[in-house]
Design goal:
Number of strands: 7
Order of helices and strands: HHEEEEEEE
Shape: globular
Largest sheet: 4 strands, antiparallel
Helix content: 10-25%
Strand content: 35-45%
Structural class: alpha+beta
Oligomer: single chain
Distance between the termini: 84 Å
Length: 165
Amino acid sequence: MKKLLVLLLTLLCLCGCQEIGSEDVDPNQRYFALIDNIKEHEGFISTSNYYDIEVEMAKIDDGYRYYVTIDNPRAALYDIEALAIEPDVDYSANMAANIGLFEDSEYSMIPNQKNPDKGYVSGLVMSGVSEKPETTLYIYVSFKNDDYSSLKTEYFKLDVKYEGE
């Protein structure tokens, strides 16, 4: 009986040491979950207190390419992830513009500092393709603080229009 009790206590201690949420999340599942999250979200913003975000569009052979630029950080931003979608687009057939979701490395921005070899960048650009010369982008951006204890998430709704010839 004592051996059984010791064995159960040992197993309980070993299980208690396992970090909750340490299981690896499949990037594809996370990608589609974020798309659904953006579609269901209410209360979008157009600017951030933490960085500048802007969109622009260029003409390409088979449509238009939009660029979402995140730069000029006003605070230290670690492990940045971003995803941009258009309404009424099937993202199981087309890849949404994203950064930080499928890469092995993390992206961080710190004001007035950069070291791209270590993942510290001065800005990020993600791009996607649109069939329309004018559209609305719904953008998810998340980042962590310097000790990774807090996650900040922002949702943007930004209009973009091709201004060329």
